[in-house]
Amino acid sequence: MGLGIRGSCKIKLERGEADVYIIHRLNVRNNMVRTQIYLTEKERTSLQLLAEQTGKTQSQLIRDAVDRLIESLDQQNRLYLLRQARGMWKDRDDLPDFEELRKEFDRFPPRDE
Predict the structure, then answer these.
(1) 3 and 34 housed in the same domain
(2) Residue 6 sits in which domain range?
(3) 98 part of a folded domain
(4) Are 27 and 4 within one domain?
(5) Residues 6+ apart with CB under 8 A from 28
(6) Angle at 79 between CA 73 and CA 82, to 5 degrees
(7) Is residue 104 domain-resident?
(8) Which run of H or of E encompasses 40?
(9) What is the DSSP string of 46-108?
(10) pTM for the full model?
């Protein structure tokens, strides 16, 4: 299958700490890494039911959820960075006159679409 990586760590949760043991196995054929996770019995049962209802594998449902989480966090991070950058040039006097630069582009009539 591929390279196996093992490790353990202690993570802090809202309701305490948990020991986590992680096993990764790289699947070279489709660039995936096998990762073992621990679910509560309720999570496992719910995931199993969702898999049956949707026709997807439990792994696919987990990957979809992780992808949505990553996308959401990336969007939040982008917005945070944009807000941090707001006004960063307001006190600079070495920049060109952007209104004059913009007028150069305005000399072309808009295209009819």
Answers:
(1) yes
(2) 1-40
(3) no
(4) yes
(5) 1, 2
(6) 140
(7) no
(8) none
(9) HHHHHHHHHT--HHHHHHHHHHHHHHHHHHHHHHHHHHHHTTTTTT-SSS--HHHHHHHHHTS
(10) 0.47
35: three-class secondary structure by DSSP: strand
Flag whether 101 is in a domain. no
Q: What is d(CA 28, CA 96) in angstroms, rounded to the nearest whole number? A: 51
Lookup: tokens for 34: 């096998």
- Cα 38 from Cα 102, distance rounded (Å): 56
Q: Provide the residue type at 26 as one letter.
A: L
Q: Is residue 3 part of a domain?
A: yes
Q: From first to last of its 113 residues, what are the pLDDT tens digits of the chain?
A: 444 444 545 455 555 555 555 555 555 556 778 888 888 999 999 999 999 999 999 999 998 998 888 888 888 888 888 888 888 878 888 888 878 888 877 777 777 76
